[in-house]
C-alpha cells in the first residue's frame, strides 16, 4: 500500500466522487502508541507553563493503553468499507456503520481507570 498526494485540480476533475477516491484508513501501531505518547507528554511537561495539563494528558494516554489491552476491538471493517464503496457512500457513514455498544464499554473502563488518579 502506498500513499499518494493528489493535486486538488485533479480531484475536482475526477468523475469518481465515491468512496473509491477516499484513501484507505491508516491504522496506527497500537503496541506502544500510548506509552510513547505518555512519555512524550511527561517530557514536555517538565519545563512548560502548561505542565499540569500535559501531565493530565499523559495520565489519560496511560489509561487509554490499559483500556486498549483490556477491551480490544474485534470488528472486521472490510465488509462495511466494501459495501460503502459499492454504494458510493463515505466509509464512516452513519447509515452503513451502525453504532456499536463497544465504545460505551471503553468509555466506562476509561473512567474507571482515571477515577483513582483524579481524587
Automatic annotation (TrEMBL):
Task: Outline the extent of the FdhE N-terminal domain.
Answer: 22-118
Please give the Gene3D superfamilies that the UniProt record associates with this protein. Answer: FdhE-like domain
Q: Return the Pfam families for the record.
A: FdhE_N
Which GO CC annotations does the UniProt entry carry?
cytosol
Q: Taxonomic lineage per UniProt?
A: Bacteria, Pseudomonadati, Pseudomonadota, Gammaproteobacteria, Enterobacterales
GO BP terms: protein maturation
Q: Which organism is it from?
A: Enterobacter agglomerans
Which GO MF terms does the UniProt record name?
ferric iron binding
This one is known as: Formate dehydrogenase accessory protein FdhE
- Top-level taxon: Bacteria
